[in-house]
Amino acid sequence: MREEGIVGLKIAGVAPELHRLLDAAVASLDASDRQTLLAPHVKIDTGAVLRRARVWRWTLGLGGAVLAATATGAWYSLRLRRELAERQRLQRELEASHARLARLNEEKSGLTRMAAHDLRNPLGGLLLSIELLRKDDETTRRRGLDRMVMMVHQMMHMIRNLLDVQALESGTRQMRLEPIVLGVALREALATLEPAAQRKAITLHLGEAEPALAVAADRSALRQVCDNLLSNALKYSPADTTVRIALARAGGDRVRLCVSAQGPGVRPEEMERLFQRYTCLSARPTGGEPSTGLGLSIVKELVGRMGGKVRCESGPGPGSAFLVELPAATIAPANIAPSPDPVVS
User: Fold this and answer.
1) What is the largest CA-CA distance in the chain?
2) Judging by DSSP bridges, how do beta strands 320-329 and 177-181 pair with one another?
3) Quick one: pLDDT at residue 345?
4) DSSP letters for 48-116
5) How many helices (H) and strands (E) does the chain have?
6) Secondary element (H or E) of residue 153
7) How many Å separate Cα 13 from the centre of its chain?
């Protein structure tokens, strides 16, 4: 059509002959020629291909980063919580220590006032007894000497209790447990307290017991337990009464010491404060004796350190009994020292 110069014609269809010629012409072209002919008319834009492996790598990387960030945040949060809990614990301990120091300071102040007050009376009595000694009357002198001995014993007992409390609080009091015949230790304590009992016309009665009834105890601590229980019974007992001491086995591995007196007894509402330090209950000494409120607390502390227990039994009326149970011990008969008959004064 170009060569012949035929113009102004519009092709509305393809004649069969021309169709075959075109098909044959197209069939004779190879792939590169076809691509060359199509390229100007059919344009394909090729973008970046997003491969599955790359997607997984990016996903895993992002997920790892998120997990690492989460784990770091959780660890940091846990660390902060632990530090906060530790600081709160230290704060509570500081507050408890502050409260304890304040309480101890108050106890020490109260103890100082009490000791000063209770020591003033015996010292005044000593001065009075010394004045009596200047007289020529032998009976008056004897009475003054007895009074001086009693007051010195009271002051020594008070000072010993104060020193023992200090030793127990500081932890310097050490226990050396050994087999001790309980009856012998009691008779030694009774012999020391017999003059005080005679001055108040109080009878001390030690009941019969097995000769070899022994306990595993510290000798000094056991003696102090006996002294405090007996002196406490004498202090609160009225004149012309009896303090009874009994020893017995309490099961196969325990020995019981019971000190009972006819004093005013202990009120039920005061029972839980009975063995606390610096505690003054409603009962008062019958002979004006000093009281620091330390004796029973020391008894409980010493008995507990020796593996024993102490309790008080008191009814609604007068009278009370203090019971101490200590671990039993075995002692050879040859090591049992002879002792006098039960004390009855």
Assistant:
1) 181
2) unpaired
3) 39
4) ----HHHHHHHHHHHHHHHHHHHHHHHHHHHHHHHHHHHHHHHHHHHHHHHHHHHHHHHHHHHHHHHHH
5) 7, 7
6) helix 138-170
7) 111
Q: Are 257 and 324 in contact (CB under 8 A)?
A: yes
For strands 254-261 and 320-329, give the pairing. antiparallel
Crossing angle between the packed helical segments 295-305 and 219-236, to the nearest 10 degrees: 150
Neighbouring CB atoms inside 10 A of 301's CB total 21
First to last CA, the chain: 162
Return d(Cα 294, Cα 300) in angstroms, integer.
Answer: 10
Compute the distance between CA of residue 321 and CA of residue 245 in angstroms, rounded to an integer. 10
Q: What is the dihedral of CA 329, 310, 299, 237, to 10 degrees?
A: -120
The pTM for the full model equals 0.56
- In the chain, the amino acid numbered 208 is E
If one counts every other C-beta atom within 10 angstroms of the C-beta of residue 318, the result is: 15
pLDDT at 132: 65
* Amino acid identity, position 184: V
Nearest C-alpha neighbor of 181 from the set 336, 310, 334: 336
* Short-list 292, 289, 239, CA closest to 262: 239
pLDDT at residue 74, as a whole number:
87
Q: Are 247 and 207 spatial neighbours (Cβ–Cβ below 8 Å)?
A: yes
Supply 193's token pair: 């307290």
Intervals of the chain under pLDDT 50: 338-345
Distance of CA 261 to the CA centre of its chain: 34
